[in-house]
Write a structure and sequence with these properties.
2 domains, galactoside 2-alpha-L-fucosyltransferase activity, alpha/beta, about 300 residues, transferase, Glyco_trans_11, six-stranded parallel beta sheet, 11 helices
Length: about 300
């Protein structure tokens, strides 16, 4: 499919979970081209790849490298951006650049000839983009997370972690209803292990904790540790003995990192279908799941109430 030696650049989009899927897709394409993998240094707010992966594993693209892939710098004036866009279009037509995207409902896809450099722009959540490299990225994550005190807290006590994803998911109608969590809790059964709630909405987590306490579950917030709260949540998800997942790519990668270290009895509950609009966007619904991931039927709504 590719000429050997072609370099690959991944244009980052979204939060950490999205970035990890994009990085993983870049690894897979670079393994086929045999070229160097560069990561677009445009980092969004919050936790980024550089915070969770070893620095020597990531080559962030310089301005020169970005320009060679037809990406202009953010400070470029309008004429320069237009010129670089035209350069990218001609490079694509001449076969010197392959733009790869994830088409709705499908996997690997590229525009034009596949003989030049490869530029990846998209979400890349279809399993064809990460099937061969997900384990390696999970291992890189675990290497950083297992030293975090939150990982040791969760793994030592075989804790249960329940993840909630709110934020823009509420606006999109993608937040999980209470029925999913009730079903997962019933399947989990009684446990003496500590229970922690994690998520992206602090006020909602307090509400969810009280809801769980009303069900007889002594849920608590994760203690504060030095550093990013996002990395703390990722470490707790990786170290947990049992996880009730939210439909969040961030949660997906925390659990994936924890799966690298085989622990008897580790149980993971995953909402199914993962993506309400899966017929319009290739999501994680069709992804290969580890044997320990137990699908639980889910609907979308306002969460616990």
């Amino acid at each position: 499919m590719f000429n050997r030696g072609n370099d690959v650049l991944v244009h980052l989009m979204g939060g950490l979970g999205n970035q990890l899927f994009q990085y993983t897709a870049g690894l897979q394409v670079a393994s086929e081209t045999g070229g160097r993998l560069y990561i677009d240094s445009s980092a969004p707010e919050g936790v980024s790849l550089a915070d969770v992966l070893a620095p020597d594993t990531i080559a962030f693209a310089s301005t020169r490298v970005r320009r060679s892939f037809g990406l202009s710098a953010g400070s470029d004036a309008a004429p320069a951006r237009i010129a670089i866009r035209l350069q990218r279009e001609w490079a694509t037509r001449l076969g010197r650049l392959t733009i790869m995207r994830e088409r709705p409902g499908s996997g690997l896809h590229h525009d034009g000839p596949s003989s030049g450099r490869c530029l990846l722009i998209g979400w890349f959540m279809h399993p064809s983009w990460y099937a061969n490299t997900m384990g390696a990225v999970g291992a890189q994550l675990l290497e950083r997370l297992r030293e975090h005190p939150a990982y040791r807290l969760a793994s030592t006590d075989n804790a249960t972690v329940i993840s909630f994803r709110r934020g823009d998911f509420v606006r999109w109608g993608m937040d999980l209803s209470s029925g999913y969590y009730e079903n997962a809790l019933d399947r989990l059964g009684a446990t003496d292990a500590p229970c922690f709630v994690v998520g992206d909405d602090s006020l909602f987590l307090d509400f969810a904790r009280h809801w769980l306490v009303s069900r007889g579950i002594a849920a608590q917030r994760v203690p504060s540790f030095e550093g990013s709260p996002g990395i703390t949540d990722l470490a707790v998800l990786a170290g947990a003995g049992s996880v009730i997942m939210s439909n969040s790519s961030f949660c997906w990668w925390g659990v994936t990192a924890g799966d690298v270290e085989v622990r008897p009895g580790r149980t993971v509950f995953v909402p199914e279908p993962w993506n309400r609009k899966r017929q319009f966007k290739a999501g994680l619904t069709s992804a290969p799941k580890p044997l320990a991931w137990i699908p639980v039927p889910s609907t979308f709504g306002r969460g616990p109430e």
